[in-house]
Automatic annotation (TrEMBL):
Classification via PANTHER family: TWO-COMPONENT RESPONSE REGULATOR
InterPro entries: CheY-like_superfamily, Sig_transdc_resp-reg_C-effctor, Sig_transdc_resp-reg_receiver, Tscrpt_reg_LuxR_C, WalR-like, WH-like_DNA-bd_sf
Domain Response regulatory: 9-126
Membrane-spanning residues: none
GO BP annotations listed: phosphorelay signal transduction system; regulation of DNA-templated transcription
Presence of keyword Cytoplasm: no
Name of the molecule in the record: Response regulator
Keywords, comma-separated and alphabetical: DNA-binding, Phosphoprotein
Length: 321
């Protein structure tokens, strides 16, 4: 294999050194194709998996300090994209099947198992990784974007996040995951609004924008899009960015770009800054009815059909924002 081609990284976790030594021996022929690491301490394995990307993790089920299913659950909650396989005794079949049904585990092996069984299972897991990476350029681009991106299921659990999203969840200042892996905002009220917005978009496919605040009361704009064509159980895509970093085009710029009058341009600027229609009306000193009239004109002049579409258009009006 060319040294310029990065080998897929596999992490094996088992508290019994003899088991790891056996795996190392029977999979020695794969060393040219796979970059294999072996860890006896599940807590150290968790730290390594969070610091470095492993395409596949093969873990024992029962380990002192942190069991295999707990390890995998914690990694998934932290946004770890690894495909996970579990080694289990025959007496643990019910737990293993439950883990597969809940989506955290790709496959399990009953110990003792042959080298070919393990090798084929890892190869199948790498095939899943390869299929995900069919959009590798898009994922790499997402990691370079100055906003957090998430794929959420209908239970408000994170299925995917880019690098900024993973960092944001670790910080826990705007959004965090609870013990069950459910995404929550900083307050009960904002969590309810976020969940309501996600549920509504997952149901009707309409794009929506919601404002969130962090622990220091900085405002964030969250764009929620339907994810019907993404797969992997994703219900919505959520894009989150601090409003001060969005660099919304000035009202005068929007006025020139879209042929708006000054009142329409000020409303457009307020909406692009994360205000809802009521807040924008108050900020402009006009009635809600007048603001809605301006909004209809904005739709006509920009060609947008929905407020979320309008906001995307306004934020993308000037290259490099």
């Amino acid at each position: 294999m060319s040294e310029h081609v990065q080998r897929p990284r596999i992490l094996f976790v088992d508290d019994e050194p003899a088991v790891l030594d056996g795996l190392r021996r029977v999979l020695a022929a794969q060393a040219r194709s796979w970059d294999m690491s072996f860890e006896t301490d599940p807590l150290r394995a968790r730290a390594r998996a969070l610091e470095n990307t492993f395409q596949v993790i093969v873990s024992d089920l029962r380990m002192p300090g942190l069991g295999g299913l707990e390890l995998i659950a914690q990694l998934k909650q932290a946004g770890c994209p690894s495909v996970c396989l579990v080694l289990t005794g025959t007496g643990d079949m019910e737990a293993a099947l439950d883990a597969i049904n809940r989506g955290g585990v790709f496959r399990f092996f009953t110990k003792p198992c042959s080298a070919e069984t393990v090798r084929q299972g890892i190869a199948d897991a790498l095939a899943v990784v390869a299929s995900r990476n069919g959009h590798g350029l898009a994922l790499a681009a997402l990691d370079r974007m100055p906003f957090a991106a998430f794929a959420l299921d209908r239970g408000f659990k994170v299925l995917f996040t880019n690098r900024a999203g993973s960092d944001l969840l670790k910080a826990g200042t705007v959004m965090r995951t609870d013990g069950g892996g459910t995404v929550r905002a900083t307050t009960v009220a904002e969590t309810a609004i976020l969940h309501q917005t996600v549920g509504a978009t997952a149901t009707d496919g309409e794009s929506r924008v919601v404002a969130l605040t962090d622990d220091d009361d900085c405002r964030y704009s969250a764009l929620v899009e339907a994810a019907a064509d993404v797969g992997d159980g994703a219900a919505v895509l959520l894009f989150l960015r601090e409003m001060d970093q969005c660099r919304v085009p000035a009202a005068a710029v929007l006025e020139k770009l879209f042929g708006l009058n000054p009142s329409e341009a000020r409303l457009a600027h307020a909406l692009a800054s994360g205000f809802d229609i009521r807040e924008a009306a108050e900020a402009q000193g006009v009635t809600l009815s007048t603001a809605r009239t301006y909004l209809k004109r904005l739709f006509q002049k920009t060609g947008a059909n929905r407020q979320a579409e309008l906001v995307r258009m306004l934020l993308g009006a000037v290259p490099g924002l």
